Structure formats: structure tokens, C-alpha cells
Amino acid sequence: MEIIFDKVTKNYGPINVFRDFDLKINQGDFIFITGPSGSGKSTLIKLILNQIKPNGGDIMVDGQAINKLKNKNEIDKIRRKIGVIFQDFQLINDLTIEENIALNLDIVKYPHSEVAPRIDKVVKMVKLQHRHFLFPSQLSGGELQRACLARALSIEPEVILADEPTGNLDPTNAWNLIKILQNINKKYKTTIIMTTHNTDFTESLDKKIIKLGKNENENT
Amino acid sequence: MRILRLTLHHIRRSPFQSLIAFLTVFVSFFIINSFIFINRGLSNVLNYFETKPEITIFLKDGLDQAAVESIQGELATYPDIKEIRYISKEKALSLYKDINKDNPLLTEMVTASILPASFEVSTYNPKVLEVIAQNFSAKNDVVDEIIYQKDVIQSLLSWTLVVRRSGIALISLFISISFVMILTLIGMKITNRKEEIKISRLLGASKFYVKRPFLMEGVIYGLIGSFFGFILSYVLIYNFRSPLNVFFQPIVFIPEISLFEPILLAAEILIGVLIGLSASWFGARRYIKW
């Protein structure tokens, strides 16, 4: 799945975050989006998901200008191909981790008979095999982040959007998460778009880096 | 299956709200069904009188045999006469004693002389009764009083109409209450689960997908509420079947169980489901904006 930002402008009232911003992400890319707080990292993720609309320009996802799609079903279809790891987890609190993953699998219409084995596989992948029956409130920050990753991986997405996934993790867990994402990227050619503050990763890994600035003139 | 599990999960997560929705539908259908049974009984009463066109002509005291025979002869000249029965004073006393046999106080003081003789006339055509009543009410020298079924029927009809109209008003009121209650509760539940809906939408769930558990919830309230409302009213009414039927003898106020009850149950369940579905649909449409 190819993602293209074509002269995208985004304002929050008088604050300009992007102005004529261009970006092309190819299938299989692993990209770090870095920048200080308020530079537009999360905005970029929200724009890809069509959670917010740009003030100008187009965001092409899978060949379609997602911001101009009138048919909501088309937007839902695109979202079903994207796995998201939210900064604030966005897990449903009164469902267990297993149920949260099952819900996502149900949304993407994953074959019913394959749901249980798929959950087993992803919880093992993120090392939550003994915790998946617990509720989000019973897990630590690191475990929640891994639960989010498990949910994103479960649907075998074409793209993973990870919004500050290591923000709540200790260095060991953070590196483990990065390793998992790297493996997924290598093995399945899944596009990974990860926002982060952490310069250790960006400096240590040989990946594409998009640096966003505090000033909109830098985000062009 | 998953949708049903999710719906039951929603119901369990807010048990008191769910209980209120269920009770509202339950009470509504209990009242609706009770009215249907009462109305059915009243229809039976009305039908009994309507299908028995009869007039009773009470005669003045002191008429001789020739005068009585002359009246009988005149009655026989009318068309569509089914039966003319002469009830003499003695026969009237015997009927009175038979009716009040369990109450000797009422029978002790009464003699044949104080009861009037009468003619009971039944016809195949109720219009003939009207003509007889009109003609004989003018014969003040021989006729004391005329009791005409039409008066009874009209009185019953007006009462039945009042009951039916009140019933329809109450049914409409309770259906509206159930509808608004489910709509409001679904709205509250949607507001409570706003985050869950937002997350599901971000994961690619369609609007219909996130609405489905709420629609199903409305259907469950309608289904269970109408079913149990019917069952309770049915059990109560059939518990009082014998005394009611004795009271209305010879009319059968509550008949034996027939095909009517299962058809009524199916119809009420269908109506309950439609109320639940439409209320939750409006609720979901109104409150799910994401």
C-alpha cells in the first residue's frame, strides 16, 4: 500500500502544522517520523486514517484520495488494511485483551474459525501469552503497548501506524517492540510508519527518517 | 454469534438501565394484553346480547285471559317471530324463586301477586323488535313496561366503546413510553460507550457494525418484555377465569385456550420487537455521530 501526501496543508485554527507538505511512502518502507511535541507527528497519523481532514492537498492511500472519499465504506475498507498502535493505547476497557483483538478481527471479517489460533499466535509474538485474558486496567504500560501491537498485527495489515509506541516503555521493552516491528517489516513487507521522540532508535537503525519541525515552514 | 455476545455484554455492563428498559416494555405489554383479554370478554358479552334479539312486555295487573290471548294473537301477526313465551305471575314467581334459591330472605316476602305477567318475544330480525316496542309502548291500558334488548345493547355498547377507547389510548401511551424509554436508554448507553465506538470506527468498523449491538439490544428488550408481559397477564386472567365466567353466566367471558392465544402472543412479540428495533434505530441514528 502506497501512501502519498500531495501538497498537504493542515491548520488548527491560526496554527499551521503542514504547508504544502509532500511525502511518499512505498509498500514495505520502515519510516520514523520524528520531531518535537506539537510538530505534527500525531496529526500525520490522523490524516492517514482520515480521522481529521487536511485544509488543502490530498492524501492518497492505496491509490485513493482518502480525504475526498464520499463513501464512508471506502474509508472503512482502507482502515481495515491498517494496523494502528495508538499513543494512548485505545483499548476497550471492559473487554479483555483477547476480546479486544477478537473485536478487531471481527471488524476485518477474519474467518471465524481462525480467530482463536490467530490470537494465540499474536499474543505469543508479543509475549503476552499468559496475560491475554486480563483486562487493560490489569496490565502495565509496557504490556498495554504490546497488547496494542498484538491487536494491530492480528489483522495482518498492509501498513502499521505506530504513534509513539515506545513512549511508555522502558528501554528493554522499547527495543523488543522495535525488533518485532522490524521482523514484521522484513518478513511480510508490511509498511511501518512510526512516530517517536527517541533518537536512539533513529540513530541506531538504518531507516528512513522524516523530521518534522515546530514551525510550519519546516514541514513542507 | 459475536454480535449477540457483544449485546449481552452491553446488557450485563449496565444492568439497571437494562432492567428499566425491560420493565417498561414488560409493564406495557402486561397492560396491553390485559386490555385485549378484557375487550375480548366484553365483545363476548355484547355478542351474546346482539345475537339474542328479545323484548319483554310486562302486562298490567288484572287482565283477563281473553285480553292476554288477544295480545298474544297480535304479537303472532308480526313477521320473523321466533318465539313468543307467556310468563304468568305464577311462572314469574317460580323463576324468581329459582334464581334466588340460595337467599331465602328474598323469596319469603314475595308472592305471585306482586310480580307482573309478561310476554318474552324473540325474533330472527332485530328490526321487528323495534316495531313491536314502538306499537306496544302506546298501549298503556294493557302494557305496564317494555324492556327492550336494544337499550341493554346500547348501554353495553357505550360502555364497551369507553373501555375500548381508554384501552387504545392507554396502549398508545404505553407503546410511546416504551419507545421513548428504549430510545433514551440506548442513547445513554451509546454515550457511555462513546470511546469504544470511536475505537471501533478507527479500526475500520462501519457505522452499521457499531450500531448492530444497540439495535440487537432494543430487539432483546422488545422480545423479552413483550413475551413476559403476555405470560403474566395470561396467567393472571386465566387464574380468574372461573369466577369471571360464573359472574357473567351464561356468557363465556374468558373462553377456553384456542388458536387465538398463540397468534396473539406472536403478534405481541412482533410488535415488541418492532418497538425495540425502531426505538434503538432512532437512538443509534441520533447519537452515533462518529
Structure description:
- The complex is a heterodimer of chains A (220) and B (290).
- Chain A is of the alpha/beta class.
- Helix content of chain A is 35%, strand content 24%.
- The two termini of chain A are 23 Å apart.
- Chain B has a domain at 2-49 and 154-287.
- Helices cover 72% and strands 9% of the residues of chain B.
- Chain B has eleven helices and four strands, in the order ααβαβααβαβααααα.
- A four-stranded antiparallel beta sheet of chain B has the order 2-3-1-4.
- In chain B, helix 7 packs antiparallel against helix 9 and helix 7 (149-192) runs parallel beside helix 11.
- Chain B is elongated.
Strand order of the largest sheet of chain A: 6-7-8-3-9
The tally of beta strands of chain A, per DSSP, is: 9
Please trace the helix and strand order of chain A, writing H or E for each element: EEEHEEHEHHHEHEHE
Structure classification of chain B: alpha+beta
User: What's the overall average pLDDT of chain A, rounded?
Assistant: 88
Count of runs of 4 or more consecutive helical residues of chain A? 7
Strands of chain B, count: 4
Tell me the overall shape of chain A.
globular
Subunit arrangement of the protein: heterodimer
What percent of the residues of chain A sit in helical stretches (DSSP H or I)? 25-40%
Summarize the biggest pleated sheet of chain B: 4 strands, antiparallel
Beta percentage of chain A is 15-25%
User: Measured on Cα atoms, how large is the radius of gyration of chain A?
Assistant: 17 Å
| Residue fraction in strands of chain B | 5-15%
Distance between the termini of chain B: 25 Å
Largest interface (CB within 8 Å) is between: A-B, 25 and 15 residues
Separation, N- and C-terminal Cα atoms of chain A: 23 Å
Helical content band of chain B: over 70%
Rg of chain B (CA only): 30 Å
Kindly report the spatial arrangement of strands forming the biggest sheet of chain B. 2-3-1-4
